Amino acid sequence: MDAERFPLLANLENPLDIQRLSDDDLTALAQEARSFLIESISKTGGHLGAALGVVELTIALFHQFNFLEDRIAWDVGHQAHIHKLFTGRAALFPDYGLWGGMSKFLERKESPYDHMGAGHASTSISSALGMAVARDVLGQNHHVIAVIGDGAMTGGLAYEALSMAGELDLNLTVILNDNGMSIDKNVGAVSRTVTRITSSDSYNAIRDELKSMTQRMPFGTEILKSLKHMERSVKDYASPDVAAMFESLNFRYFGPVDGHNVHELIAMLGHAKTMQGPLLIRISTVKGKGMGPDIENTFAAHAVSPPKSKSAAAQPQKSWTNIYSEGMADLMARDSKVVAITAAMLSNTGLAPLKEKYPDRVLDVGIAEANGYCGAAGLAIGGIKPFVTIYSTFSQRAIDQIIHDIALQNLPVRIMMDRGGFVGSDGPTHHGVFDFSYLRMIPGMVHMAPCNELEMRRMMRTAYEHDGGPIAMRFARGDTPAMDLPLQIEPILIGQGELLRPASQGGLLLAAVGSMVPVAEQVAEELESQGVDCAVINARFIKPLDEALLSEQIGKARGVITLEENVLSGGFGEAVLRLMAHQDLQRPARLLGAPDQFVSYGGQRDQLEAAGLTASQVLKTALDFWRGISGAPVRRRKRLA
Q1: What is the pTM of this model?
Q2: Which residues contact 62 (CB under 8 A, 6 or more apart)?
Q3: How far, in Å, are 351, 455, 473 from residue 483 at the CA level?
Q4: How many CB atoms lie within 10 A of CB 166?
Q5: Angle at CA 579, nearest 5°, toward 575 and 580?
Q6: Which residues in 114-251 belong to E strands, given as ranges?
Q7: Which residues pair with 46 in a beta bridge?
Q8: How confident is the model at residue 293 (pLDDT cuts 50, 70, 90)?
């Protein structure tokens, strides 16, 4: 930490030190924190905009609360970078999101100040609700706060938790960070005046005294109802619809509060500490504040990329997401019945340009994946060809809809999963290493994974033409070699694999799927140079398998290795083992895939190494396996990357 440039941050030994700062120092601390964060994340890449919007709020929270005793749940976690900065992790920011470095979101094991880990949205109120109930059951007396925002209020889980918290009448404070990604705009001075009055200590002292008096009076219950109705009416006038919505859930509503006025926030939170029951404080912030007017409150403010190295790839590359976008553009131009659905990820899934061209046929459901999948079922019933385009990790939140609303009715919903496999610095909350397993278990499901650009486009055509039930495709994060595509993209027969490399009787078989197919080909080439005859199958489909092709090649092989960028439990390798058992094909086998643990933050290469899935690691495994089953010596030559 540069003490000359960041003197207040450098001298911040404990978050409680914030409570002793002067008004001027609090303002200066916000400037230092914002500058530090912009510099740090610009070097490493990562989420930035949401954290810049809550700098003053974070200062106010630490000014009013002690989070070694009080509890806080930050929604998603990328709002909490300043929280990390104030809790002793300034020196970890150079390794933000890197292997062995600081997590990009919150992790309970990283700090005693991180009370709830989160990488998916809309969980804060529910987890804070649980903390508040635990506090009351144990007879404790600390404060519990949830900070939700950045669009997370579009998720149904948030409203389920609000409803329950209001019903239980808990002491719980919810702070809604309204940065324009959620509900309506700030309505102005009248609303701010009402908030100051209704949150003041004197107003609430009078309010509590009137409540106590009416409870002792005849018809006191009716009088109290009238007083509450009057208060609600005033708030409704100042902030129509919003106040009524939250207060109908038994939350006292305050707001909007200027989220960049640290002194106003401190005053509001100070009042909130003295109140009883569920409270909701709405603050208005600017996403990406400090990044400049051209970036603030735009998609570009959400996250930044690290500086790119100047070394060019040997072969032109194309991102999997761009390939998907091009494929969808072709299908949507071909057929007006093709409709795309996503969940607050228009740009990241490549659908943003299609939304501009087909505004009525590209639907963004917000952070509400279950609604997206269930709505797709309705679209299919109505004769539409829905393509649900959601990250693999976020699709996990809608497993019931995939099973109950889509598969059980055998509806032709196309499930397109971006970010399949390891995803790099977004880490364990975002790895898409479970979809082979949770989709393979569903009756009637078809699931496939492409190994290159042409195969992906062919699989999209396969999904388009498949009307016999649900069909899924997962594709990786990152780039793949660009290819010259034929004028006519042909579909692939459902369940048809591909023999990429034959082998003679008694050799080794590598059966791979998706992103692991190029690795299998590279390893097989090296194995052959070392005297090991090796066949390679590109399975293409996780379900259904090409049983004829696999059975034939397994029957020829002396041993089998399966490769997948998915957990082994319930995955592709286990499907092959099941086939071998049914066909009575008794062969030694090794299953390679994601380990039975959550793989940490870092680069995709780091994560593949942790799983033993790099080409050099697979080669070593294959050579050791071959020696064990054949007893033949192996000529060692080169090492793979």
Answers
A1: 0.83
A2: 15, 16, 18, 19, 86
A3: 21, 10, 20
A4: 19
A5: 115
A6: 144-149, 172-178
A7: 304
A8: confident
pLDDT of 183 reads: 36
Answer whether 550's CB lies under 8 Å from 416's CB. no
Specify burial of residue 391 (Cβ count, 10 A radius: 0-12, 13-18, 19+).
buried
Put residue 136 in one of left, alpha, beta given phi > 0 → left and psi -120 to 50 → alpha: alpha
Residues 6+ apart with CB under 8 A from 229: none
What's the distance, CA 594 to chain centroid?
Answer: 19
Catalytic site positions: 287, 369, 397
The candidate with the shortest Cα–Cα distance to 273, out of 447, 177, 87, 141, is 141
Mapped onto helix, strand or coil, the DSSP state of residue 52 is: helix
| pLDDT tens per residue across span 116-145 | 988 888 999 999 999 999 999 999 999 999
> Where do the H-state alpha helices sit in 218-261?
220-238, 242-247
Task: Identify the pLDDT of residue 153.
Answer: 87
Q: What is the pLDDT of residues 231-260, one digit of tens each?
A: 554 444 445 568 888 999 999 999 899 999
Q: Which tokens go with 370?
A: 């279950």
| More reliable by pLDDT, 243 or 517 | 517
Distance CA 571, CA 577 (A): 10
Buried b (16+ CB within 10 A) or exposed e, 120-135: bbbbbbbbbbbbbbeb
Using alpha carbons, select from 239, 225, 223 the residue that is nearest to residue 280: 239
Mean pLDDT rounded to a whole number for the chain: 89
Phi, psi (rounded to 5 degrees) for 529:
-65, -15
How big is the chain, counted in residues?
641
Query: In the 3-class helix/strand/coil scheme, how is 340-390 assigned residue by residue?
Result: EEECCCCCCCCCHHHHHHCCCCEEECCCCHHHHHHHHHHHHHCCCEEEEEE
Q: What would the two tokens of residue 487 be?
A: 């004028």
> Alpha helix (H) ranges present in 420-512?
435-440, 453-465
- With a pLDDT cut of 70, the percent of the chain lying above it is 87
Tokens 């930050």 correspond to what residue? Answer: 74
Q: Do residues 331 and 377 lie in contact, with contact meaning Cβ atoms separated by under 8 Å?
A: no
Q: What is the pLDDT of residue 237?
A: 42
pLDDT at 554 over 60: yes
What domains, with CATH codes, occur in the chain?
Answer: 7-284 (3.40.50.970), 317-481 (3.40.50.970), 499-630 (3.40.50.920)
**468-502 exposure pattern, b = at least 16 Cβ within 10 A, e = fewer:** ebbbbbbbbbbebebbeeeeebebbebbbbeebbe
pLDDT band at 599 (very low <50, low <70, confident <90, very high): very high
Q: Pairing mode, if any, of strands 589-594 and 252-258?
A: unpaired
Amino acid residing at 42: S
Long-range contacts of 108-117 (CB under 8 A, 24+ apart): 111/84, 111/87, 112/68, 113/15, 113/67, 113/68, 113/83, 113/87, 114/80, 115/67, 115/71, 115/72, 115/73, 116/73, 116/74, 117/77, 117/429
DSSP conformation letters of 301-333 = GTEEPPPPPSPPPSS-EEEHHHHHHHHHHHHHH
State yes or no: pLDDT of 186 exceeds 50: no
